[in-house]
């Protein structure tokens, strides 16, 4: 991953491939942000005017490259837009800083080192710039740049392979010897390393990432970070009566798994349980998805990836809270062994569910995991899932929905998500939609009314949460996987959506502020 340092060098004397400065959108043109003073001085105080001449406005996401002036050791200056000038000087929004740093870092792919002279006058600003730069530097290249065996052995390939991420970020303007700044940078490194590991898992092709191999990754990480890992294979799932997970996974040659990751702290007073949907590939099963809807279904394990990353991050940060992660892993495939529409599954809770649509499989694996997580009586449960297309229809591709059995807890999770820069929106669980899941054959069906389908899925999950336990459901179907061009710190492909929210929730819980 990209290296990050708090540099003691000044912007003018730093030896790097480029210097990154911030520029805001003012009433009369671009306005330089704090941190750019030394660079502006090298341009004789005319950097803003030069940028305006080049068409820069300071709008968010805008990026302008120009040759450096004499007096700067770096050959290139990169000006990145921060959006509107804030009402108060030096009070740039943390998310604006993250996005600007991410935009610049992505644009500098292939470079060895860049100095980021963005606003970093506070610990919070420095942390935001660090997170954005590291997130924006991400690239998934594991399957690119292979040897061309058809080329002559003595010929030099014109294809030098994929462009590598920016190798090093030098964060300028901070206080390298200040403990708070050091802690903020260390947190950013740990957090982003695990977000990027989640992104790698999401982007890995399903022929290489399936329940057993995902479980192996979790077991390896557990050994590295002192996390206790338990893996239930098919035999254990049958013995335990996990009918939901088994029913979804029985059509595949790759058997399902339920993985428990337990991070504990000796001084912890609270326990947080996280449950992730881990469908490593979703064909829809017998209710096969239509053409054009299968190509990105390797991302249907994004919830499990987020939970995995959050538990490991909590362990790396040494948070004073017990965090248990449950990865409900299965591959949903059509075959002679697959669950059929009309089949009835007996869930781990003992309830029976009539499967009306095998493509509504995520709620089935989550139901078993939620029941199992509830048995341990945690103080709160949060599940994360790419659950419904209905939620994408409601909130678009960049915002996830939050449902809960407790209004105060839902509000707390929403506030935390907004604080860390993850777009989200609180959604209701209307009681009248529950009747649509009544079944003449079983205790309930896995489908209900078509309208409000994302809320119906939330009501289904609610049935499997233990009594008296605060629970929230994050439907990340929109933001979990980005199919367009990169923007800000968001790459093409897996995004690592919800990891930052889960980690901050764990930090709040550790501080005694569960909400």
Please render the helix and strand layout as text.
Blueprint: E1 3-6, E2 18-26, E3 29-32, H1 37-42, H2 47-53, E4 63-67, E5 76-84, H3 94-107, E6 113-117, H4 123-136, E7 168-171, H5 179-203, H6 211-225, E8 228-232, H7 234-240, H8 243-249, E9 257-263, E10 271-282, H9 302-317, E11 322-332, E12 344-346, E13 352-354, H10 362-375, E14 380-385, H11 389-395, E15 400-404, H12 407-420, E16 424-426, E17 444-445, H13 453-462, E18 470-475, E19 481-482, E20 493-494, H14 499-510
Parallel strand pairs: 1-7, 2-5, 2-6, 6-7, 10-11, 10-14, 13-17, 14-18, 15-16
Antiparallel strand pairs: 2-3, 4-5, 8-9, 9-11, 12-13, 15-18, 19-20
Helix pairs in contact: 3-4, 4-5, 5-9, 6-9, 8-10, 9-14, 10-13, 12-14
């Amino acid at each position: 991953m990209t290296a990050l340092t708090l540099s003691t060098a000044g912007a003018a004397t730093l030896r790097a491939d480029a210097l990154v400065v911030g520029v805001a959108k003012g009433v009369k043109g671009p306005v330089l942000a704090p941190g750019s003073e030394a660079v502006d001085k090298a341009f004789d105080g005319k950097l803003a005017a030069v940028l305006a001449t080049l068409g820069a406005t300071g709008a968010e996401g805008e990026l302008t490259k120009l040759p450096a002036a004499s007096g700067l050791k770096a050959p290139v200056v990169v000006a990145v837009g921060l959006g509107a000038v804030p009402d108060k000087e030096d009070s740039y929004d943390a998310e604006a800083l993250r996005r600007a740093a991410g935009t610049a870092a992505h644009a500098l792919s292939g470079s060895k080192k860049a100095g980021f002279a963005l606003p970093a006058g506070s610990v919070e600003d420095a942390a935001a710039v660090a997170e954005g730069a590291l997130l924006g530097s991400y690239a998934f290249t594991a399957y690119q740049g292979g040897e061309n065996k058809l080329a002559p052995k003595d010929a030099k390939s014109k294809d030098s392979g994929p462009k590598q991420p920016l190798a090093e970020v030098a964060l300028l303007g901070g206080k390298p010897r200040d403990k708070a700044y050091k802690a903020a940078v260390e947190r950013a490194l740990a957090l982003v390393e695990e977000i990027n590991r989640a992104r790698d898992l999401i982007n890995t092709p399903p022929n290489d990432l399936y329940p057993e191999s995902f479980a192996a990754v979790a077991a390896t990480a557990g050994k590295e970070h002192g996390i206790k890992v338990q893996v239930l294979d098919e035999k254990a799932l049958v013995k335990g009566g996990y009918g939901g997970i088994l029913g979804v996974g029985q059509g595949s040659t790759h058997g399902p798994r339920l993985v428990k990751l337990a991070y504990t702290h000796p001084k912890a007073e609270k326990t947080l349980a996280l449950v992730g949907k881990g469908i490593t590939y979703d064909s829809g099963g017998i209710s096969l998805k239509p053409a054009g809807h299968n190509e990105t279904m390797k991302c249907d394990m994004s919830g499990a990836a987020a939970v995995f990353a959050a538990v490991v991050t909590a362990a790396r940060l040494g948070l004073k809270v017990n965090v248990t992660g449950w990865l409900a892993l299965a591959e949903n495939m059509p075959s002679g062994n697959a669950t059929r529409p009309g089949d009835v599954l007996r869930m781990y809770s003992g309830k029976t569910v009539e499967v009306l649509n095998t493509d509504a499989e995520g709620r089935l694996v989550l139901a078993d995991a939620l029941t199992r997580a509830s048995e341990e009586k945690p103080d709160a449960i949060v599940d994360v899932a790419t659950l419904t297309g209905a939620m994408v229809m409601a909130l678009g591709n960049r915002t996830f929905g939050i449902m809960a059995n407790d209004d105060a807890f839902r509000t707390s999770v929403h506030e935390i998500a907004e604080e860390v820069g993850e777009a989200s929106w609180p959604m209701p669980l209307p009681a009248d939609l529950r009747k649509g899941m009544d079944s003449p054959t079983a205790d309930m069906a896995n489908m209900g009314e078509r309208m409000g389908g994302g809320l119906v899925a939330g009501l289904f999950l609610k049935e499997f949460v233990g009594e008296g336990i605060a629970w929230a459901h994050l439907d990340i179907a929109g933001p979990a996987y980005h199919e367009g061009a990169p923007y800000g710190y968001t790459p093409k492909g897996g995004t690592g959506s919800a990891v930052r929210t889960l980690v901050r929730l764990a930090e709040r819980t550790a501080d005694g502020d569960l909400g």
